# Entry
Amino acid sequence: MKTVIINGANGYVASNFVRNLLKQHYHVIALVRANKQDAEERMNNALAIMNDGENINTNNLEVYNYSLCDDDYSMDKNILKSIFSSNIDYFHFAASLKYDEKSMDEIFSTNIEGVENSIKVFSKYATTSSRFFYIGTAYSCGRLEGVFKEQFYQNEDISAFRNYYEQSKRFAENIIKGNIEKNGLNAHIIRLSQVVGNHETGITRTDYGIFDFAKRISSLATRFPNEIVRVRVDADSTQNLIPVDTVTQHLTRVVEKNSVPRIMNFVSNRSIQNSHIIETLNQILPLHLIPMKGLEWKDMNQIERLVSVGMSFTESYTSTNIHFETVRRDELLKNPETGPDEKSISEMLRYYIENNLAKKKSKKYEAA
# Structure
């Protein structure tokens, strides 16, 4: 069975991918940065969370501590030679999800220099038949109007993007492009839209995107129950949301295939309107949200300004109706089911909010 190496393997999507690969009996090598916990403990904890605490067979899993931007990842050269010795698929997940200007150095270090170093390590140790997969974002499209195609786009100034995260991911794609053209790097780019929970169970373990918004609104509802709150959201705009179980199935299919397109957009075939997300939150929480496109700061009350400040990242995505090409993805996956539908998004939001509130109550009880 093929060996799959994954860096940033304890992240949300990556750990779900690791779990799925282990269930399919692949040999998985997880590269994880140690912090207060060692790398293996972090990986096992991530797997336990994603597997709802149930044991998972990790006999085919090896975990190594690594440092993304250091020479040879600060790993022993003999270990690197060993883990790259067969024809492997290497998945680069590691990324900073920060987005603001004050974090620009960290964003560019992780998302650009980290990719450059991964290519350097891969090129030094991997066999010629091994493949390098870069996990990008469909939102590297920036403020593009029209369809975001499965092709490379040139680097642009920050004004072409909503934030530095998007820009850094575009730059990283073009670093890979340069290595393909100049050095023959056997690389592929997989762009993900906003990854949400499991569309079958509703279980959601991410705080990103609409769930970050839900968390902030949930906290607000606890502090100011029964308030009517206007939010700067275009009700008719949409979110492209792809379930984490769908993503992991797609990625596993990539590993199974010998021939893979250069660039694929792993996105949902149908988007979810902001109005549905707002309506769901109104049903779950003791608060009434009113989406109002173009709501000005000067016209907001104190509570509405609190919401706006907390939406510094998500607000830039509340007026999007982005269209993504999926021709090459569909060539590989053959008319894939992508989901989610409105019902499953409502279930994810309910699960997330109920569990988020339960954690808060537990912390309060422990502190009492």
Observations:
- The radius of gyration is 21 Å.
